[in-house]
UniProtKB/TrEMBL annotation:
Pfam hit, one: EF-hand_8
PANTHER family hit by this protein: CALCIUM BINDING PROTEINS, EF-HAND DOMAIN-CONTAINING PROTEIN
Name listed for the protein in its UniProt record: Kv channel-interacting protein 2-like protein
SMART domains hit by this protein: EFh (SM00054)
Alphabetized GO MF terms: calcium ion binding
Keyword match Repeat: yes
Originating species: Dinothrombium tinctorium
Amino acid sequence: DCPNGYVDVDVLRDVLMRFFPYGNAFPYAYHVFRTLDPKKKGEISFKEFLIWLSEMSRGTIETKLKWIFQLYDINGDGFITKKELSIIINSIYTLLGKKSNAVDDKYIEEKTRKFFHRFDINSDGYISHNEFIAICRKVSTSEENFLISFNVTASVQSNQFSMTNFIISFKIGKKSM
């Protein structure tokens, strides 16, 4: 519930927990919120939040890829490091909780290694925005699952997570700000 018209990381976490009740939503909510609040005010307007939701569900592929890159580029330096990628992958599996079949550090390391092998075109240990976009544009339909596995927002297009239900959760949520 957003009676004052603002969303913060705790509200986002609480809503995500309704869709992913078997895990811990805070790490992923924190990173999503970080991309939505670049000025670090600690809250965004509900209108800003709805605009982001609209962009993620109806926006161009370029808009979605730009956001996904920002999610993984934790320090905002324009590059994704193995550590940053590992942190986000871990937050996704933490969000999924019991549904993720007990993922361990070795599994996350392997996912990170595979991702870097595919996306770090010049093998410099960093994935630049240009490398990320170039590979994403080349991904065939059969390879989409590879990318989708690295981004929970891809479930927006699946039956388990609908934007309508997500928005409704804010309206009927138990938490007041």
